[in-house]
From TrEMBL:
The keyword Membrane does not apply. InterPro entries: VbhA, VbhA-like, VbhA_sf. This is Antitoxin VbhA domain-containing protein. Gene3D superfamilies: Antitoxin VbhA-like (1.10.8.1050). It comes from uncultured prokaryote. Pfam families: VbhA.
Amino acid sequence: MQFTYEIIPRPVDVGGGWLLRLLENGEEVGSGAFPPTDEFEDAEEALRGAYEDAEWEAYLWLESRPIPSEERHQRRAAVDFAIANLMLAGLKPSVTWQAHARSYIDGAIDLKPFVEGPDESTKEM
């Protein structure tokens, strides 16, 4: 199963902002409207805030989705392979990187963010 989302603009005549679509294998399984809020004085900031709210909700939904055991096994094998190669090169993965790898194995992040590595502010080797 593939869980994804998309955030698309909402028409101004229905309040503007963003529409969050939650997708399972490309089919919509949920949605939510995120109009700009009054907590911002600037319209652009209000729109950005609404987008961030939609994105946050999408991340929460993705984190709640289970990954199949076969995929978890494949992810574990990929991480074990990466760790073995690092150790052969004389490198030891940091605690931060190991936590990042667990996020990938558990399905909290997909391949692209895993390959990109932990947040720049936490990178270490």
